[in-house]
Design brief:
Shape: globular
Helix content: 40-55%
Structural class: mainly alpha
Largest sheet: 3 strands, antiparallel
Low-confidence stretches: 1-8
Number of strands: 10
Oligomer: single chain
């Protein structure tokens, strides 16, 4: 049964603080960093949500956010997960001197970037801008100019990241999933042997700027660097990497975002008389394969698929639920996903919705990055998906549970999902004054 859940929220104070954070984190008037101390560059899917947040009070800045991000787009269409607009702030590993994108023939000639990508949210963010300002000449002009760039990105995924032509794109690095150290990847990365000389010496900065107990381990980082080295060796060519990499994953979240953004491009093409190319065919195949291949009946949810070892990664985690926003599940499967969320919220041990990983699994860690905490942008995706299927009570529960956390603990990167613990805390986890947290708050309140 859907349950309405609405704590008291100080809307005006939250809106004012969210706007302050986005403005404070915007550098050179062109791009927004996730957090000024922890992440000093422009991040791919972060900026999608940032644009959504700015659209509520500064539409030119929302447009500029996406334009500055796509300065990093490669000639083959790939959009990197980090755009290094400034080399002066290299207090982050791996920075521009590590990736060396300028040595890659197809890389952006405007700015240095990383060599991996992130979940493609840009299509549906662009659609939200249009739906919010359907009569704006500025917005329409932007979309018409920007549309081919997003279409080119999607074409890259289908041509360079789908070796079996199934309609599902693969990732070759945990960071590309958006869920860096998720337990999903633990068993797989344990099989990757790292010998002396396989990875260069490197210095982390993230665990100097945030509590190390909340960050990925040094062992995790060794694997990240190993996979980056493999990518760099192949000039980040997806088809070449697929033949060698031990990490070739068809991820739930990544492909749900691709499918939802495909849908957005189709809708925008209809509204603005644009050329959608082969998107409808791509999306029909993607939705069909996602529904048939990634569902695991005994778990009652979708899981990523390990292409290298030809098996599902059988764990319950947050990415499964993003399929709702992409309109993928059948009604019966959608109800199973909704029921899991409700059961999580109603448990006697008291969890805020939604933990990023299965709290009944021994690996669950409520404060360790993607091993358990509540994440702002994931709650936003769940909220949209639940509403799409008509589960409005559950959607509101997810929304107001999150707003209550921000109201009590501030605009942090992620939060403890244990209600009894979070209720005794004074702040969340990870980076403070976090941009996509501010953006989600603005969108939730203005919904």
């Amino acid at each position: 049964m859907d349950i309405q859940f609405r704590p008291t929220i100080k809307d005006e104070a939250l809106i004012k603080e969210a706007q302050r954070i986005l403005n404070h984190n915007t550098w050179e008037g062109r791009y927004t960093v996730p957090s000024s101390k922890l992440y000093p560059y422009q991040w791919n899917w972060d900026s999608g949500f940032v644009a959504m947040g700015f659209a509520h009070f500064d539409i030119p800045r929302a447009i500029k956010e996406l334009e500055s991000l796509f300065e990093g787009q490669w000639e083959n269409g790939m959009l990197p997960h980090i755009v290094f607009h400034s080399k002066k702030r290299e207090g982050y590993f791996p920075g521009p001197s590590y990736w060396q994108s300028s040595k890659v023939p197809e890389a952006s000639k405007l700015v240095e970037t990383s060599g991996i990508t992130q979940p493609p949210v840009h299509g549906f963010i662009m659609e939200r801008l249009f739906n919010q300002y359907p009569n704006s000449k500025e917005v329409k002009a932007f979309i018409k100019a920007f549309y081919p760039k997003v279409l080119k990105l999607h074409k890259y995924y289908y041509e360079h990241r789908d070796p079996n032509k199934e309609g599902l794109a693969f990732i070759f690095h945990p960071w590309a999933s958006g869920r860096d150290n998720s337990p999903l990847w633990d068993d797989l990365v344990k099989t990757i042997p790292i010998k002396p000389g396989d990875i260069p010496k490197y210095k982390r900065y993230d665990n100097l700027k945030a509590d190390p107990s909340e960050r990925p381990s040094d062992k995790d980082y060794d694997i990240y660097v190993y996979l980056m080295e493999l990518g760099r060796r192949h000039n980040y060519d997806g088809n070449a990497i697929a033949k060698e990499s031990p990490f070739v994953i068809q991820d739930t979240l990544f492909n749900a975002m691709l499918i939802r953004s495909n849908e957005a491009l189709i809708n925008l093409a209809d509204e603005l008389d644009l050329d959608a190319g082969p998107i409808e065919d791509w999306n029909e195949q993607s939705k069909k394969t996602f529904e048939e291949k990634l569902w695991v009946e005994e778990l009652g949810m979708y899981t990523p698929y390990d292409l290298r070892n030809e098996k599902h990664i059988r764990m319950k985690e947050i990415g499964a639920f993003t399929a709702l926003y992409a309109d993928i599940p059948s009604p019966s499967r959608a109800r199973k996903l909704r029921n899991y969320i409700e059961e999580m919220a109603d448990r006697e041990d008291g969890f805020r919705v939604m933990p990023s990983f299965d709290p009944d699994h021994w690996i669950f860690n409520p404060k360790k990055y993607w091993k358990g905490p509540v994440w702002p942008q994931m709650n936003w995706l769940l909220y949209q998906g639940l509403n799409r299927y008509g589960f409005h009570g559950t959607a509101n529960r997810v929304k107001y549970d999150f707003l209550d956390l921000v109201n009590k603990l501030g605009f942090h990167e992620y939060y403890d999902p244990r209600r009894a613990v979070a209720d005794q805390q004074t702040h969340g986890y990870g980076g403070a004054d976090f941009s996509w947290t501010a953006a989600v708050v603005l969108d939730f309140i203005n919904d």
